[in-house]
Recover the amino acids of this structure.
């Protein structure tokens, strides 16, 4: 496996990355423990319930502290904060990780978005929560969608495709009919549209597919339920 992908590198005040290695939950803390302890940084782990719920984190102590020192943020798939000393983390298999940063208001955001989350509008909800909670102007926010399952590999049944068409009629453009009631769906393309609809100033998505690049990424579909890739963001 290659090293982590670094996100928002042009902003030295941001430490953000997309891990490529499949790890289990406990490894999250151990991978970063020495550095986090040295800096007095707390690791906030998102619950991952395949929702569109985004939680502002201002007081980490109201959340559940696990035995290994991580803070478990229940019942959400996204979080935003303007606080230093809090590292937002999530994990993905083939789902998408959405990173966001407002360099003016100094607000960060991170979200986990599988197909259910994308259908519920998670990418847009992340930006809307930044705007509502911290007064961020979407036009000043930069967003990045990490590697995840691509159009090349994401096959769904007709009922899932129809759910997307019903919610977003325009997303038929992001669907390929394979016949026999099977379709391919472009989750990254749909997510970019949702971000652009919020007025985000700059949004881009990694073109890389986790499912068909075994030399570069761990994949739930390819590897089974043996771990997840870690994503993280914090203000230094």
């Amino acid at each position: 496996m290659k090293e982590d992908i670094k996100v928002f590198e042009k902003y030295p005040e941001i430490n953000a990355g997309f891990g490529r290695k499949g790890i289990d939950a406990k490894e999250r803390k151990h991978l970063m423990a020495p550095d986090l302890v040295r800096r007095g940084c707390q690791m906030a782990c998102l619950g991952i319930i395949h929702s569109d719920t985004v939680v502002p984190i201002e007081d980490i102590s109201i959340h559940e502290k696990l035995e290994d020192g991580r803070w478990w943020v229940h019942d959400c798939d996204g979080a935003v904060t303007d606080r230093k000393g809090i590292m937002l983390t999530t994990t993905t298999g083939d789902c998408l990780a959405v990173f966001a940063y407002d360099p003016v208001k100094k607000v960060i955001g991170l979200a986990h978005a599988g197909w259910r989350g994308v259908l519920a509008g998670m990418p847009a909800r992340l930006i809307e929560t930044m705007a509502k909670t911290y007064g961020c102007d979407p036009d000043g926010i930069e967003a990045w969608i990490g590697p995840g399952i691509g159009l090349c590999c994401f096959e769904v049944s007709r009922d899932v495709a129809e759910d997307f068409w019903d919610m977003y009629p325009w997303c038929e453009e992001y669907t390929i009919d394979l016949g026999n009631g099977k379709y391919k769906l472009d989750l990254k393309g749909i997510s970019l549209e949702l971000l652009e609809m919020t007025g985000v100033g700059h949004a881009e998505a990694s073109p890389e597919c986790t499912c068909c690049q075994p030399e570069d990424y761990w994949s739930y579909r390819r590897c089974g339920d043996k771990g997840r890739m870690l994503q993280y963001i914090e203000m230094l």
Remarks:
- The two ends are 27 Å apart (CA to CA).
- The chain has a mean pLDDT of 93.
